[in-house]
Amino acid sequence: MATTNFGYTYRELRRAKGYSLKAASGAEVSVQFLSQFERGESQISFERLDSLLRNIHVSLSEFVAAAGSDHLNWMDWWAYQLTEAWRLRPADIDAAVAMAPPSAQPAVMAINGIVLLDQEDQRGALTGTSLAAVTAVLRRAVRPGMFSNLVASLAAFALPQDLRIQTVTRLLEQPYVRSYARYLRPCTTAYAVVCLAEAEVVLGSATLAGEWLAKVDRQLRPADMYERLMVRKVQAGVAYAQGAVPQAERMRDQVLRAWQILDDKVEYQLFAEHIRAMFAMIGDDNHGTA
Amino acid sequence: MVQPRYGIAFRELRMANAVSQLMLVDNDADRQALSRFERGRHAITVDRLSNMLDRIPATYQEYLRVMVPEPNASFEDFMGLRERILYGTAGRVRLRMLADRYRARFDETHEEWLEHRAIILAASPSAHRTSEEGQRLRGFLRAHGAWSHYEFALFTYGLTTVLNLDDVEPMWSGLIQPFDVQTRLGYQSQRRQIGALLMVAQLSFADGRLPLMKKALDAVRTIPALAGGPYEELRLQGLRALYMIHSPEMSTAAGRERLRAVIELCDFVQAKAVAKRLRVELAASLAEAE
Q1: Domains of chain A, residue spans
Q2: Non-local CB neighbours of B280 within 8 Å, separated by 6+ positions
Q3: Under an 8 A CB cutoff, do A181 and B184 touch?
Q4: Is B228 contained in some domain?
Q5: Residues 6+ apart with CB under 8 A from A59
Q6: Is CATH 2.30.30 correct for A74-286?
Q7: pLDDT tops 80 at residue A177
Q8: Homologous superfamily of A6-66
Q9: Residues of B in contact with A50 (CB under 8 A)
């Protein structure tokens, strides 16, 4: 991560917000140190940087954005490229492989290999080393974090059922990981559970998926509206799989109407295609034509 | 003076991800430095921390969230705590109690951040104190020209506690001209900016100030982060509908229809507080028509 211009950026922000050197340095850092830092000293400790940012009330994300350091960290950047790729915008997900540490590279490669496939084609797409890499990520963490949520969200349709069930069970037991950045949504607990529930509706037990969705729904807050609409989308799938077709179609229509009222054509399209594909896969499985 | 909480939090994050120290470093000297850091005996540079977070892998946000909670923990942690309390049992009462504690500490130390947190949590029951706090807050916001997430949040909650609508115009340039952070990392400050403008629109409406309401709604439309926030969009659509109903230049009937659609969506996504408010307004509007 490039940190050489951190000092200049800090000075710009400090001045823009009207803080003197003395006010910004606070109790933990000397004015002399701050002055040196602003002139280009790069080897600042994280503690001191945290303290300096708090004194002028700038968050770390805002600071790094102002510093133009697009690679706050590789995972954050990869998550962003993935969401751009989904929206069929120019994106470079392959660069994340080189950026990732060696321990994470196998999982990143595995995910990159399947993420742009249709869900139907993702089934069974992970085998051998790629499956082992993804399994290792999902099984390893004591407390799932953003990386394992992201892997779970994106590999949902490619996982064997037992791993899918184990992953959801663990996710539901842990404190929820949340984020309000759009590009970090796939890294949240709710998003991961909904993706896994969707795979379960199509490939396994709709009843089980319905239980997972109900649990997530109870944990959501009003501001988690995107996740709520995702839950409703997959609940429509549950109804469809259980044969309650009119109810499923009503729920589908309500979800799509939501995006119309919210005036978001892109999400409307994405959700509409997604639901169509989900119903089709459920229909195929129900009639044994998969 | 090294603060132990940085290293302790890092150790917790590392262990939650089932990662050994050896996996994060390239040589024994670095491992020893890491070990000292985790025991709170050593500060590490931003570069080294970033490198190790990458190898876990974990984001900065995840690290900051694990930091041992203490009174001047990050502002994000504080806002997260506020949300958790608000949505728990007897939320408003507990927020007031916490606000009182912050006020008491401010009385001892006169550190302004303590008063800021009290203001965000709840209004003082004393009118005299409210007036003093308002004066100090006005001074603070005017002194810090370019706003970031902190000032927007303070302004938003300040409007419901110690400020009033007459403060909006003098602070308008702060409200609409934050740092020019258009990258994906700008979402944090932009989201708070949207929240501030929506609060202005909401309070303007309650006060019958339609031109100010329109000004705020039009300003929200220009903020890129709106595209990632369905909940903010929902609130915006509700306020737009109210504007349509009450503005002499627009169709009241169309406004009511839109308001009904928004209320239905609120019910669908369990945005109860918004639904309740909008229902009251719809009922009032229909009563007026009779």
Answers
A1: 6-66, 74-286
A2: none
A3: yes
A4: no
A5: A53, B74, B75, B76, B148, B149, B150, B188, B189
A6: no
A7: yes
A8: lambda repressor-like DNA-binding domains (1.10.260.40)
A9: 6, 74
- Give per-residue pLDDT as tens, B98-135: 899 889 889 988 999 999 999 999 999 899 999 999 99
C-beta atoms of B149 and A60 within 8 A: no
Residue B51 counted as domain residue: yes
Residue B11 belongs to domain spanning? 4-66
Place of tokens 């430095």: B33
How much is the pTM? 0.87
Q: How near does any CA of chain B get to the CA of A163, in Å?
A: 18
Task: Read off the pLDDT of each residue in A66-90 and give the average, rounded to a whole number.
Answer: 78
| Spatial distance between the Cα atoms of B278 and A206, rounded to a whole number of angstroms | 36
Of A104, A264, A267, Cβ closest to residue B57: A104
Same fold, A6-66 and A74-286: no
pLDDT tens column, A94-153: 888 888 988 899 999 999 999 888 888 999 899 999 999 999 999 987 888 999 999 999
Condensed to tens digits (0 to 9), the pLDDT of residues A36-77 reads: 999 986 568 888 888 899 899 988 878 877 776 655 578 888
In this structure, is residue B27 part of a structural domain?
Answer: yes
Which residue type does A257 have?
Answer: R
The overall average pLDDT reported for chain A is 89
Residue B108 lies in a domain: no
Give the count of beta carbons closer than 10 Å to the beta carbon of residue B159.
18
CA nearest A4 in B: which residue? B47
Query: Which residue in chain A is spatially nearest to B258 when comparing CA positions?
Result: A261
Residues of B in contact with A65 (CB under 8 A): 181, 183-186
Q: Does B58 contact A3 at a Cβ distance shorter than 8 Å?
A: no
User: Cα separation of A112 and A139, whole Å?
Assistant: 20
- Structural domains in chain B (count): 1
Measure B54 CA to nearest chain A CA, in Å: 6
ipTM: 0.86
Mutate: best of B3, B14, B22, B46, partner A, most A CBs <10 A:
B46
From the list B267, B268, B195, the residue with the least C-alpha distance to B233 is: B195
Could you give the angle at the alpha carbon of A209 between the alpha carbons of A203 and A210, nearest 5°?
140
Smallest CA–CA separation between B208 and chain A, in Å? 25
